[in-house]
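ugh ok so i messed up the first submission bc i forgot one of the chains. this is the corrected input, ALL of the components this time, i swear. 1111 residues overall. if the numbers dont match what u have on ur side tell me asap before i send this to the collaborators (the ones from the other lab, u know who)
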Amino acid sequence: MNHSNVVLSVQDLQVSYLTTRGRMRAVNHVSFDLHQGETLALIGESGCGKSTLNLSLIQLLPKTGVVDGGRVVYANRGGQQIDILSLRGEKLRRFRWAECAMVFQAALNSLNPVIRVRDMVLDTARAHGNSDTKAVTHRALELFRMVRLDPDRVFNAYPHQLSGGMRQRVLIALSVLLDPQVLLLDEPTTAVDILTQRTIIDVLKTLRRELGISMIFISHDLSIAAEMADTVATMYAGEIVEIGPVNDVFYRPAHAYTLGLMRAVPRLSTDREELNSIPGSPPDLIAPPPGCKFHPRCGFATDICKTAPPPAAIHATEDAFMPHQFACHHADRVMRDAQENPAHARAVD
Amino acid sequence: MPLIGFDTVASPLGLLIGVVCGLVPLYMGIRLGQVRVGIGGLVACVLSGFACGFIGGLPMILLTVALVASYARPVNDDPYMSRATLEQVNFSETRGEAIMRSLAGMGRSLRLAARAVLRNRAGFIGFLGVAFFFGMTTFGPLFIEYDGQAHFYDRLQPGAQTLFQGPSAEFPLGLDYQGRDILSHIVYGGQGVIFTAALAGVLTTFIAVTFGAAAALLGGVVDTVLTAIANFILTIPQFPLLVVIAAVINLDERVYLALLLAALDWPSLMRAIRAQVLSLRERDYVEAAVSLNLGLGHIIGREVMPNMISYIVISTIFSIRAAMYQQVGLVFLGLVPLQEPDWGVMILLARQQGALFLQEATSMLLSPVLAIALFQLSLVLFTRSLEEIFNPRLREGL
Amino acid sequence: MSSLSSPQAPPYTAPSASPTFLDLARRLFRSYAFRVTAQGIFTIWAVTTFTFILIRQMPGNPIEIRISQIIQAQNVTYEEALAQAAGLFDFDPSKPLIEQYVDYLGKVARGDLGESIVSAGTPVISQIMRYLPWTLFSVGLGLLFSFTVGILIGMAMAYWRGSVFDNVMTVFASVTFSIPNYIIALLILLIAGVQLQLFSVGQLRGAVDPSITPGFTLEYIASILEHAFLPVLTYVSATVGGWMLTMKSSTLATLGEEYVTVARARGLKNWRILTSYVGRNAMLPLVTQLAVSIGFVIGGSVIIEVIFVYPGIGSLLSSSIANRDYTTMQGVFLIIAIAVVLSNTLADILYGLLDPRISTSGER
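and heres the new structure output, hopefully the right one now
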């Protein structure tokens, strides 16, 4: 990880969906920096705005989604700063995949069922101005090998001839075909079996090692997040409520929601452990609760949580460039609780 | 077949049938404390009995009683659907209670359907169109006299070559080749066309649902044989087959014609029903009912049918449409010796009498053509509303 | 990194160098095109058998009718009349039914459909060959045109859903889709021909202007197109609405598919996404419907050709029925059925070409 090099800087990003009931703020004042080679894991329940955040970074929001404010600045290899959200038309098209690619959930059919993998590869290259079939094929075969696929078999196959795990690796290989700097991964291991999950994680690690790619990684699985991430950000109700180096966030969580997420993870190691799921469900984003949005579900909540939004606080960490930031009125109590019941906090081991 | 159909159209007998039928919802309404709905049911029954005798009256009893029941029991209290705990649910309802509950459920669906019809603009227009044609063909004869005799002398215009006349104040749709009032032929000529098409449509649906459900639920040889027959009929082009059969056998009775149409039209619907029943059978709640050993009747009547009823109704309407297409087509080719008045016969005669060359004869051809076109258009538009009821994605907010 | 290290990849076996005849036969048998063709052949056989039974077993047996006609007209004995009728119908009533059936099948396979009753001496097949091309031409042109136009407009409706264009087209499609094709034909004739006098109804009868000498001349081709215009217009008007509405909903469904989003994320050009990703997938359900539509349009051509006095197979069927020419009727029906089965088979093969999930399922 190279701290001097920020490849992607998200500044005060706000995204809403226009629904029949009103404006739904799905991403609310989100800011963070992604450094070169860094992997940022976004954790949180479904409907917390993680996927929306990812989609807005390459302007792929559905028609009802609008960016209300903020900037996303991307630094290309030439050191040029690009405001992604102001890209339009041909510029946007060329930016996508070449600079910033995205891998979707394995369960969804991300590959066009009626064309061969070969054509998808060549299409992608051609759309970005590379019509050298031979060179592209060579590169693709190399990448297929890197993601542990049989290159000859996969290259000429139709998607339906591949298993779910193989399709997911095809998409991963395809995502790095144009050598992007940033890879957005939206639950890449959901809905594949445990062995395939392992393979995909290993493949992603290999890619990161060999290509030096930066990743934003959405996952429900905290143990995978812990394994992959350098930095972890917890999202709740469209906001990043805690962000910091992986060890700080997982071993010394300062936000009650992060702690709740970790206590909800079932473990094999400890015996007769009760599973503590967080009561209730994420709030309605059209009319979110006042104060701290987590307070209706929070065991630490007091009166102040119901009225005042918690201020952002910072803890210094071993890493001078990457402080541990959080927004919780009762960070001290949460951290103490996490220290006193460490078994709960070791969810990620 | 006396008393059951259009024979009793707008006759005192039909009125009597309607009143007798209407007493049932009225009685239910009084007993359940829903007098106003009961009176509404009486009116509906009288009207439909007056219009179509028992064919209109008996189904209307069911519908209106269901409505009365739904007003009396506004909450769905099906023990099998209940979310309460096992101890709280009363499974031991009597047969009467169970029937009442089903009726109430049906009534609620009816009210939802009525609301959907009112909300969907295209569907509402279609509904009005269908209602208009039914009203015109059943009650129209009360107001207009049928003009069946040729007027060779009294209506011949001085200097005119033919008896054809364009629309005038006295004859809004003009006169046909025998100087007869076209309007009266339109009013009287719809009954037979609509009756045949409706009968064929209902028969088609009946065959398709029976065979489809049997094939899906019984499987094995039954399934193989029925599916093979359906596939075979489907591959033969329907209309030429009808033409050939109509050329060989004599179809001078509307009922036979309807039977023949239904005998050839059922396969595509049967395959759809079979597929639906098969997929429904795989659903959790049906499997649950099977494992609870609730009996085939319960499974079909309570778990499978409610999920298909709208689809079946829509399909019936499309079958009616197809039957009308084929019926009028056969008549147009002169293959079905039906009697006047009949829209199809009108088209046939108009064409034979040179309506394609005489401007003043246009009305004789155009009137039945437009009547058929508008009726079919109304039917298709009407299904929009039904689709809204059928498709849960469109049903949001109900 | 070796490809064998993947725990998921099934063991990869290279095809053996020289496939045996058995392998080839098995692959042929499994191939989609073969299955579809076999099904088509079976259906044609079944239809042929069906016509055989229809003509012989129907109440009001056409042979008996013909025999009584001959007896009345020529004042001969029943046996003589029977022999004459049998000659026309191409069967020997003294043989057992099964033998008659085999004879009949053999003759049909050789293209021998007997002789016309009305114009004696004319083989039915030659008559059919004179009429069939016009039906194939007009129906084919109409379907091709309406399928193409319907797909394009339907896609445009989906892309600009909710726009004025979409609304206008939806109304147009719903109306034309709802009205029977012969009603549309009559309306065209009445409004454009009789009321507006845009063309002369009488002059457009037939397939070409008889005064023009046949040949590959501009004048002749123009005459063919002119005469086919009204039937084709009818086929197009009656079917294009259906294609538009189906394509619209199919495109809307496809636009929601993940691979379209991924294609946009991949920075593909819009045109490429529109054609290879949205268009090709959205078209698939319509190709299946094409098979149904072919049968329906050819069936409907019976009335349309009568209305426009167009000398296709439909009007031949209609006139043969009017003339009680049962041998012609039987032959025409058989040919129509075969034509529909063949078109269905073609549509199925086309579907296999468009959707690799169908045609390559055997490889899995």
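quick check: Confidence is low (pLDDT under 50) at residues 343-349 of chain A. that seems consistent at least. Chain A touches chain C through 43 residues (CB under 8 Å).
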